[in-house]
Amino acid sequence: MIRFFNTYCSIRTLILVMGEALTVFASLLLGITLQFREDSFLVLNFEYGYYKIFVLTILALLLSQGLDLYDPIHFNAKRELYFRLLMVPGWLALALGVIGLLFPRLMLRDLSFPAGGLLILAFGLLGWRSAYAWLASKPFLREQVYVLGGDERALRLVAGLKDRSELGVDVVGWTGDSPGISTRETMAAHLHEIAGKNTLHRVIVAMPDRRDTMPMQELLNLRLHNAVVIEEATSWLERISGKIEVEGLYPSWILFANGFRSNPVSRMLRQFVNLAAAVLGLLLAAPLIPFIALAIRLDSPGSVFYHQKRVGRGEKAFHCYKFRSMREDAEADVGPTWAGDDDPRITKVGKFLRTSRLDEIPQLWCVLKGDMSFVGPRPERPEFVEWLTKEIPYYGIRHIVRPGITGWAQVRYKYGNTVEDAKQKLQYDLFYIKNASIGLDMLIMFQTIKTVLLGRGAQ
Question: How far apart are CA 261 and CA 437, in angstroms?
């Protein structure tokens, strides 16, 4: 770790950011050189070209930070990382378009748009990240980690760290390595032995009950005298899996963890994007609505739409609207119940609507009304909320944000119709609430579009 601007920064992160900055600057410089050719010297030296490239480089780095591109273990799929990388030149192009309209004098000569530079930048960013992945595999950029704990949770963490080589972590030992380690003294001895053989950079604590068993003195010595980072396992399991496990989760972790909050500007920008997505969705879906309504009426008797009471932000109830996909009397005998696989209550047209997600088009009206957001946790019925709140710890946290038509849980987990499924989806919802950002929202929208186009519908 390096102390940089009064904060600690890992060498890996510093190399990543510096390489990114050089890539952005060089790509835009090459683009201008190719665009203006013999006039490029004048543009760069006498028309403030270098300064403008520098400003765009800073803007690109800020965009990358906002899109969580400097936390490489934030998302585990490479395609998600590449999608976020390609968003950087896209947002730069949008920003330059707005600047060109409002402040044309700030643009390059003749209001030229550096399209070539942005295209080079897209390939440059992908190339740099590939080079960085190779560089990060070298020993001098890898961290040696000890996992303190020997239960199933610790085993999941160790397996996840070993499977994810891109994290730059080598597990040099964990409590489960040796049988019979169960007391504070035996844990301290094992930790001391591992630290003596290796240069430890980090100790990750994965113990369900920390009292009377944690080798506190040994950890303090490593922290104070060897500058070893001591962390809790929940954060690492979150980074590996894309969800926050509720089993063994301490309220103090939620209280002190980074996240679970956003600044007003970010909230306003995300709300604008969500509303824009809802308006665009309604405009695109408008030609389909008459045909969907006709198909529903011809398939089964009853109304085209149906509405249910759902629980929204602040646990306030609202009416959620959908196209009807079940029989009109679907709950006349059984009462409120989740839909199951091959549920006989689902009509033929309804099955297609659910698979294609077309049944959710009317929810766009709920977004415009302010009851829902385009992205957020799935809204649940009051009867289920009351039951699940008793069964699943921290279930009420999902109501601190607006529910959404789609969400992190919806694109990462199946539909689900059991308490265990509800718990798994809550863990993804907690991840979303903690890490909510415009970048994550747009990623979820992209994944939703892909899900619909590939026919991976949910019930």
Answer: 10
3-state secondary structure of 59: helix
Q: Are 410 and 456 in contact (CB under 8 A)?
A: no
Nearest to 349 by CA among 309, 308, 301: 301
Strands 317-323 and 373-375: unpaired
Helix (H) or strand (E) holding 3: strand 2-4
State which amino acid sits at residue 306.
Y
How much is the pTM?
0.73
Phi, psi of 356, rounded to the nearest 5 degrees: -90, -5
Centre a 10 Å sphere on the Cβ of residue 95 and count the other Cβ atoms it contains.
14
pLDDT of amino acid 313: 94
DSSP-assigned states of every residue in 204-246: EE--S--TTTS-HHHHHHHHHHS--EEEEHHHHHHHHHSS---
Q: Over the stretch 8-21, which tens digit does the pLDDT of each residue have?
A: 455 677 888 899 99
What's the pLDDT score for residue 238? 87
- The answer for 227, left when phi > 0, alpha when psi is -120 to 50, beta otherwise, is left
Alpha-carbon gap, residue 117 to 34, rounded angstroms: 9
Burial class (CB in 10 A: 0-12, 13-18, 19+), 326: buried
Instruction: State which residues of the chain have pLDDT below 70.
Output: 1-11, 46, 71-78, 104-113, 165-166, 209-212, 330-336, 340-342, 454-459
Please report the pLDDT score of residue 458 as a whole number. 45
Distance CA 89, CA 384 (A): 44
The strand pair at 305-311 and 202-205 is best described as: unpaired
Residue 378 forms beta bridges with which residues? none
What's the pLDDT at 209?
A: 62
Q: 353-395 pLDDT, tens per residue?
A: 888 889 999 999 999 999 999 999 999 999 999 999 999 999 9
98, 39 in Cβ contact below 8 A? no
Buried b (16+ CB within 10 A) or exposed e, 417-444: eeeeebbbbbbbbbbbbbbbbbbbbbbb
pLDDT of residue 319: 94
Radius of gyration of the chain (CA): 26
Going along the chain from its start, the domains and CATH numbers come out as 2-136 (no CATH), 142-241 (3.40.50.2300), 264-329+336-453 (no CATH)
pLDDT at 71: 64
Determine the distance from the C-alpha atom of residue 90 to the mean position of all C-alpha atoms in its chain, rounded to a whole number.
19
Q: Give dist(CA 376, CA 383) in Å, integer.
A: 20
Q: Is the dihedral of CA 121, 124, 130, 131 positive or negative?
A: negative
In the structure encoding, which two tokens stand for residue 337, read together? 């119940």
CB 84, CB 439: distance < 8 Å = yes
